[in-house]
């Protein structure tokens, strides 16, 4: 584990576990969490002999709580700074939700041009674009996102209990049994970060258009999505992304929620391994 300082002076925390000679698997976390959200996957791939790397996005987890730069261009540049510092090559990048947007822009803008990327995985990811626009009529209305900002600003601590207790993991569905430890861990990760970074991050994950990034990506890309994703609906994300990617594979999980990597790690992890080693 260590830190690097980016060109604009932001300190980014990262984890780097496993043999330095092994193929790297790089994980990009979702909003408003940290690299800890990937613990289960990192331990799994570590046990399979891979090198596993994950960083905390600026303003999240243990990275610096800076005022500015909470947008996808900075997120991708920060990720690139970590990859260049560690000189990672032949890496598989795996991004969940907002991290899927970050990974998409990183691969298109930095990873591919630098020859560092072997494959990409997008899980419950925000691309191509979340917000409703004339070009994306099926997207989320801006009013919904404004509501998220309002709720966060009013009582972030309560919001970060309610969100994982409900739609994030599908615990609001009939018959679902909330897992207290999972909810508490989500809250712990969220509250470790910066309120401003999380507030600004809503615009970053919802209004960024990744269409051209997706079109530019030519490495094999696995798109995984829960059919019952209440946060990033599959029809407006994964099903559109696969039409833009050059080498996509789509894997849909019936009735799985947005937080499928945590709730169904026993299914997701072997599927990831199969793609990585194919």
Overview of the structural elements:
Keywords: Hydrolase. GO terms for molecular function: hydrolase activity. Belongs to the AB hydrolase superfamily. Bacterial non-heme haloperoxidase / perhydrolase family. The chain is α/β, with parallel strands linked by helices. The chain has a single domain (2-277), classed as Alpha/Beta hydrolase fold, catalytic domain (Rossmann fold, 3-Layer(aba) Sandwich), CATH 3.40.50. 42% of the residues lie in helices and 17% in strands. The protein contains ten helices and eight strands. The protein has helices at residues 39-47, 72-86, 98-111, 142-165, 180-192, 195-207, 211-216, 238-244, 260-263, 265-277; strands spanning 2-5, 11-17, 24-28, 51-55, 91-96, 117-123, 221-226, 248-253. The chain has an eight-stranded mixed β-sheet, sandwiched between helices. Strand 7 (221-226), helix 8 and strand 8 (248-253) form a beta-alpha-beta unit. It starts with a strand and ends with a helix. The model has no long low-confidence stretch (mean pLDDT 97).
